[in-house]
Amino acid sequence: MVPSNLSIMIVDADRSQRLLLRRHLDTIDGIEIAAEQGNINECLQSADANPPDVLIVELDTSNNLDKTLEAVGSLKLTHPTIAVFVNSTSNTPELIMSAMRAGAQEFLRRPVELDKLRKALEKVRILTTHTKAKTATRGKVVSVFSKRGGLGVTTLAVNLGIALSEVSEQRTALIDLDLQLGDITSFLNLTPEYDILDACGDGEEVDEMQLQSCMTLHGSGVAVLAEPGNPDASAEVSGRQVTEILDHLRSMYGYVVVDASHSFSDSTYSAFEQSDNILIVTVSTVSSIRATKKSLELFRSLGYGPDKVQIVVNRVSKADGIRVNQIEKTLDYPVFWTIPNNYRAVVDAINSGIPLVNGKRPADVGKSVIRLAEALMNGNRGEVP
Ligand SMILES: Nc1ncnc2c1ncn2[C@@H]1O[C@H](COP(=O)(O)OP(=O)(O)OP(=O)(O)O)[C@@H](O)[C@H]1O
Ligand SMILES: [Mg+2]
Known about the structure:
The protein is an alpha/beta fold.
């Protein structure tokens, strides 16, 4: 689908800043400046007559701040789909909070940087393109999970997310639900401005626009919802909020990959319930196979069978004492996929920041994840040696 132009309205008392914004916007494709105003009240009238997609408004802390926030709030009430970007020379947490409460989607430091503006507009484009095509089918949710830690869940989730976005050519989101120990952002070398706690906001309901503004774009094009910056606050994310987050994300993205927590918490159950596929990661050791058996029993009791729950044996090598067919026998369950052991490639990918599935010649482990993405996308049968 070819996205239509985004119409932008600028409100800024300072001419030179308006000029700067215009210059930035001129360099971004698919943008149309609908109006430029010196104050918010004039803007309210023209926005009512002709609502833009995005309003970029100055927050001047020394002049009419409350009035500006009030005007933003009332504009959002009458036109909830307008994305509001505020910009200010101040960036105190109180000011950011007040702006978000008024309905702002992005908070930009003044003078606004081109790169930040471009990224913020890209997020709006994803959402509006999607909203305009709301008839589209729901995206698929793939959760990657293992009861035991350290078996390769995050490695697989991150690389599968990138591989799915490439092979499916659909927008893909990656969400870290390992709320206490999550480390997707360090795997991807990202410094997120917002995380899942910001996405949840103050209330029980998760706002779609706010969620979208909390996503961090990775160079691969995958949008990441980061783990809480403050792990102590992880309990603040409820199962219901996870359901809502996934519901919103799957209406915006073709694929949503979840790095699930290793514990069966409310949020993990919500993710499982929303998932089209749950990939259980195991390795060929007695303890991890035992843990996998327990997980399978639990999934069986939830009514999930092999169409939904697939086993992925990670770190497979010729030297393994327990072969894949023995794992299948012990679990009385088919193994869907195997990923080769290649510690060097995995560590290089983390250190270089180039994901396993990217690069000119991906290593065997990267190739395997790309084929897994293709199999999930096409509903193919699994692949075991
Ligand atoms: N296919 C592989 N070959 C070799 N090493 C691997 C492979 N996959 C993952 N690893 C290594 O296994 C270790 C654990 O990986 P990872 O962090 O992805 O697991 P996890 O299940 O997310 O662990 P955590 O308990 O921290 O959540 C890492 O050192 C990683 O480099
Ligand atoms: Mg992990």
